Amino acid sequence: MAAVYRLVAHFRMTDLIFTHISLRLPGPEHHFLINPYGLLFEEITASNLVKIDLDGNPVEPTPYPVNPAGFVIHSAIHAARSDAHCVLHTHTRAGCAVAAQQDGLLPVNQMSMEFHDRIGYHEYEGVALSLDEQQRLVADIGDHPALILRNHGLLTVGETAAQAFLRMYYLEKACEIQVTAQACGTPLTLPPADVRERTARQLRGEEHGSDLQDDHAYDLAWQALLRLVQRIAPDHAD
């Protein structure tokens, strides 16, 4: 979990202290870890993560508060999705730019096609401080691995912190490519729907009609990222 925070900082996906990553802990209590409100992501270590319950209350002594908007968004998804062990939310420039576009994420590039018909959209309601927004957040993400918060930012979920991070990394890259392609001012070439769907299945390991398979790609990428964290932020595990 601390490694993911450092990777988000390294890849410049932070917004000072104002975004959040949470991880559900094993056990029936529905406790989860979230960042201490007030620390930059580059300051986060394993020992200063805050352990809270679904009501946003710390369950262990901590000198740090919890971001209220982080609690509203993350607790709703953790409570509704048994597979959403990790929830990652960002406010990046490219992500916010695509979140402001009427058509949302376009199948401009192979990276975006991982999310073809597999991304939800949530209309902007203001800063997420109202508990009644939770039911709409949950309805809008459905069973998708990602959510675009209109006029706000991006969100991904995963069964592990690694999966949530890799989904966000490629969702962010897809947004960067889209904004760059649109800036050229020329018509975009988009592949047909059947190619988008096949590509989505391939990238999610659900396509079994190809001649070759690459079943270890994300595991290998995550191990490489952990080696990167060990080099750039060896104190993350403190």
TrEMBL record:
Transmembrane segments: none annotated. The lineage of its organism: Bacteria, Bacillati, Actinomycetota, Actinomycetes, Kitasatosporales. Residues 1-179 form the Class II aldolase/adducin N-terminal domain. GO terms for cellular component: cytoskeleton. InterPro entries: Aldolase-II_Adducin_sf, Aldolase_II/adducin_N, Aldolase_II/adducin_N_sf. GO terms for molecular function: actin filament binding. PANTHER family: ADDUCIN, PROTEIN HU-LI TAI SHAO. Belongs to the aldolase class II family. Pfam families: Aldolase_II. This is Class II aldolase/adducin family protein. It comes from the Bacteria.
